[in-house]
Amino acid sequence: MIEYYTAFIILKGGRKDQMKSMKFFILFAVLLFVVLSYRTYEQYKEISETQKLIVLHESRSLAEFISAFRQTYQDIFLREHIAITDTSLNLLPVKTLTEISERFASRLKGDVVIRTVSDRPRNPVNKVDRFEAEMIGYFKQHPEKEYRFMEKQGTYSYIKPIYIEKSCLRCHGKREDAIPSIRKRYDKAYDYKLGEIRGVMHIKIKDRDLFAGLYNDFLSALLSAIFFYLLLLVIIYLLIKRIRLKEEEYLQKLEEDIEKKTHEINKQKETFETLFEKSSDGILIVDGGKFIECNEKMVEILDYPSKEALLEMQASSLVPKFQPDGSNSYEKSKEMIALAEKYKVHQFECVYLRANGEEFLAEVTLTPIVLGERNVTHTVVRDISDKKRAQQELLRQKNILHHQAHHDALTGLPNRTLFADRLEHGIELAERHAKKLALFFIDLDNFKQINDSLGHHIGDRVLMVVAERLKAKIRKEDTLARLGGDEFTIIIENLDDERQLASFAEKIQEVLSQPIHIEGHTLYTSCSIGISFYPEDAKNANDLVKYADAAMYKAKEEGRDNYQFYSAEMTALAFERVVMESSLRQAIKNEEFVLYYQPQVNAKSSKMTGMEALIRWEHPRLGLMLPDKFIPLAEETGLIIGIDRWVMRTAMTQIKAWYSAGLNPGVLALNLSMRQLMDESFMEILHECLETIGFEPEWLELEVTESQMMKKPDDAIVRLEQIKAMGINIAIDDFGTGYSSLSYLKRLPVSKLKIDQAFIHGIPEDKGSAAIVKATIALARSLGLKLIAEGVENEVQKTFLVEHGCIIMQGYYYGRPMPAEQIEKKCFDIC
Ligand SMILES: Nc1nc2c(ncn2[C@@H]2O[C@@H]3COP(=O)(O)O[C@H]4[C@@H](O)[C@H](n5cnc6c(=O)[nH]c(N)nc65)O[C@@H]4COP(=O)(O)O[C@H]3[C@H]2O)c(=O)[nH]1
């Protein structure tokens, strides 16, 4: 900027200098002209004077010569007494001189004229002219003057008076005294007195040739002076022009630079103005509490009708009297300005007021600046109320997310992650303060059944009730968490007396055994509790959890609805479960499973109508294992899908083999887990098995347990419809144990009900069982479904069933589950 102003000043100065130098040049030229003119004039005057002197000198010499010549001749005439005759008359000095003068004048072409004249001439030729007459008058008045020398129109006149001398009187005195020949001849020009003016000698010189040399020199000097003058002027002019040209170039460049700079500055100014006006923040320039400038955004933020209206306001009207922290706004602003002055800039948050009195939170940046020569405060105001709201919302969302990440969505209790944290923290505290800590592992005993039979939404409600009841029982400092499913934990910190724990466990059992009323259902639950201690049982969280879990399993094994404190032996039990899971995985790979078949018989004809395939595990160490030992674990871990696929393929291959061998094994009943049924690839595999094995669909009957089916009845119906459409029969296993509603039963695409063996065992003595069996038979009839009873062990049961209309049976009475060769031997022949 400084450079720009310097250039601007130089340009202005340059332009002035150019004008100055031009003026100077003209002045110089005029001055030189005046000097030279004066000098020429002086020279001319000098020459004129010289010329005048020469002419005077020459004229005087000539006049003196002529005077002497005349005197001499005159004296000769007088001395020799030469009479004036016609002949001698021509020798008279006056006459002779007149003639000589004429001839002389004619020779010099009239440039030098010598006249000897009188106002009373005897010869009219010598008559004075007007000028000469004036001269005679002059000399008469000025007798002291010897001559007069004058210049008129380039002609010099030298006039010398001729006085009457003594000798002159002989001819011009008294006539009677005059020489007789004169007297005789002339009758005028007498009576002159001695010293009287007889006439004048007038020498006129007008021939300039005499001074040509002088004038030529003058002229050539004048011409060369003019020439040098002009040359000097031209040189000076060229020099000035050259300097001016350079200057002009320089100034032109300077002008261009200035123009460019001006353009840039204007652009910058425009940019800054735009930045200022269009800034996304409000800007206010404050000079000692007075607003001197603001931008559009400021007007918009504060909601004033115009800039002018805002600028008229007092600083105090833009803020409430007090800030939210209770500080006085005026005091605060003073403090903030002081800080801005100290640190050059200061940013802070402040509540502002809009024109309508609405308060908003602003982020304010104060910067002391110098504007012109004034110290002002540049104030940037950013409305951060939205930002603050968004931040708070974000914080709220974050808190929600944090809460969600650490809490169980259903019950709002801490989840597994938060539980782990709290447990770690609790152990740390217990260690630091030498306190004890107890961990309760609570699992509902019959939750799976409720969930499976009444659906998830009821199950969820049960869990919520359980959570509430547990919450009501714990202290503030204890942590109740839900780890998933029906597993709850309680961390009890600051434990003083372990004996209290038993009563606490009992209280939990009691509260959870209270009936739960949901949607018209009255549900009864119980729980199994495992308890472990810090530091006696374990000193780290992992072990503490593992041991409480093991104790809980022990409680389950002990017949459920009880609590167990951890003991070292329990670890082995838990270990067994882990080992079991891993060996189950190995079993699929190692083909350790075998299939047993149990006949299904028509009690009236005693003929085998089909058989149920039942899996056995030939454990390499533990020997033959029944499905109850591993099927729940397989279902829990999802391994059941692989197992059931193996069973399906193996059994179908066997049955097909029998059919192919010309035997009649009847219908193959296969247990189908819900997980397998709902598996995406199940239908594909089923098709593939039927096709590759060449198995007829009507040879197959799939058994789905009632409780499993009721977990997702709608989904199950869709899938079972597809199966039924293939021509495959579907039977409901364990019928009577679940909570099947009749409406669902009607919609299920099943063709057979299998009465659960629990009811068969009690007949005919157990009235309840007998009533259920009879009701189930009646229900099957009314729905047009086939029936089969399982677990028939004796004749009485068989007779009861036959009497009431259930003809098809399965049970030890007809045969236990047996390997394929055995059933082939025994039953194919018998039945
Ligand atoms: N006390 C008594 N029991 C009798 C009598 N008649 C049959 N049983 C037993 O009752 C169970 C009948 O099978 P289930 O109800 O489908 O119940 C089965 C079935 O739900 C499941 N299971 C067996 N094999 C498979 C399989 O391959 N896949 C699936 N998903 N589950 C299977 O394991 C359960 C138990 O099977 P198992 O131990 O073989 O036990 C069989 C069978 O041995 C009797 O007269 N008295």
TrEMBL record:
InterPro entries: Biofilm_reg_signaling, EAL_dom, EAL_sf, GGDEF_dom, Nucleotide_cyclase, PAS, PAS-assoc_C, PAS-like_dom_sf. Residues 577-831 form the EAL domain. The keyword Glycoprotein does not apply. It catalyses: 3',3'-c-di-GMP + H2O = 5'-phosphoguanylyl(3'->5')guanosine + H(+). The chain crosses the membrane at residues 21-41, 218-240. It comes from Sulfurovum riftiae. One of its GO terms (biological process) is cellular response to nitric oxide. Pfam families: EAL (PF00563), GGDEF (PF00990), PAS_9 (PF13426), Tll0287-like (PF11845). The lineage of its organism: Bacteria, Pseudomonadati, Campylobacterota, Epsilonproteobacteria, Campylobacterales. Keywords: Coiled coil, Membrane, Transmembrane, Transmembrane helix. GO terms for molecular function: cyclic-guanylate-specific phosphodiesterase activity. Residues 346-396 form the PAC domain. It comes from the Bacteria. This is Diguanylate cyclase. The keyword Transmembrane helix applies. PANTHER family: BIOFILM ARCHITECTURE MAINTENANCE PROTEIN MBAA (PTHR44757:SF2), DIGUANYLATE CYCLASE DGCP (PTHR44757). Residues 244-271 form a coiled coil. Residues 435-568 form the GGDEF domain. Gene3D superfamilies: 3.30.70.270, EAL domain (3.20.20.450), PAS domain (3.30.450.20).
